[in-house]
């Protein structure tokens, strides 16, 4: 018996490898694409249903608590970035640190440290102006 007939020769392994690659290529093209398309359509359906559930069970009937939103905006330490161009990074960071340590607003901390007057602070820090380009 010759070595390539018994399946132990190098030629037979190479031939089988090529055959397997050809089969895999055909299998990929003919079977995997429809499976991928089916899975994508299923995913779109799941996202669609989730969005409708989100609207139906969470967004409908929700009301804004404007007073609470305003208090969150006024106490936000992120507004300190508006002070950096006027006062510099170090003083702005000191204001933010003081407000954080005292549990006060940036305006109160700025007035306490004496860097700006209340009118100057209100003229520089305008949250509504910082929400769009």
Task: Describe, in plain words, how this protein is organized in 3D.
The protein is mostly helical and 133 residues long. It has two domains: 1-62; 66-130, Ribonucleotide Reductase Protein R1, domain 1, CATH 1.10.40.30. The model has no long low-confidence stretch (mean pLDDT 84). Helix content is 69%, strand content 0%. It is elongated and about 85 Å long.
Fraction of residues in β-strands: under 5%
Number-wise, the strands total 0
N-to-C span: 81 Å
pLDDT averaged residue by residue: 84
CATH class of the largest domain: Mainly Alpha
Q: CATH H-level name of the largest domain... which superfamily?
A: Fumarase/aspartase (C-terminal domain)
The general outline is elongated
- Measured on Cα atoms, how large is the radius of gyration? 33 Å
For the sheet with most strands, the description reads: none
Query: Which structural class fits the helix and strand makeup?
Result: mainly alpha
Low-confidence stretches are none
- The helix count comes to 6
Helix content: 55-70%
Order of helices and strands: HHHHHH
The CATH architecture of the largest domain can be named as Orthogonal Bundle
> Remind me, CATH topology of the largest domain?
Ribonucleotide Reductase Protein R1, domain 1
**Count of separate structural domains:** 2
């Amino acid at each position: 018996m010759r070595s390539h007939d018994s399946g132990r020769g190098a030629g037979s392994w190479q031939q089988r490898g090529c055959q397997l690659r050809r089969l895999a290529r055909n299998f990929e093209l003919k079977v995997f694409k429809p499976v991928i398309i089916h899975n994508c359509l299923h995913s779109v359906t799941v996202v669609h249903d989730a969005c409708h559930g989100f609207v139906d069970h969470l967004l409908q009937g929700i009301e804004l608590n404007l007073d609470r939103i305003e208090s969150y905006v006024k106490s936000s330490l992120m507004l300190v970035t508006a002070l950096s161009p006027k006062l510099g990074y170090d003083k702005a960071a000191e204001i933010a640190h003081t407000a954080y340590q005292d549990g006060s607003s940036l305006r109160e901390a700025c007035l306490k440290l004496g860097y700006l007057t209340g009118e100057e602070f209100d003229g520089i820090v305008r949250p509504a102006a910082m929400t769009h380009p």
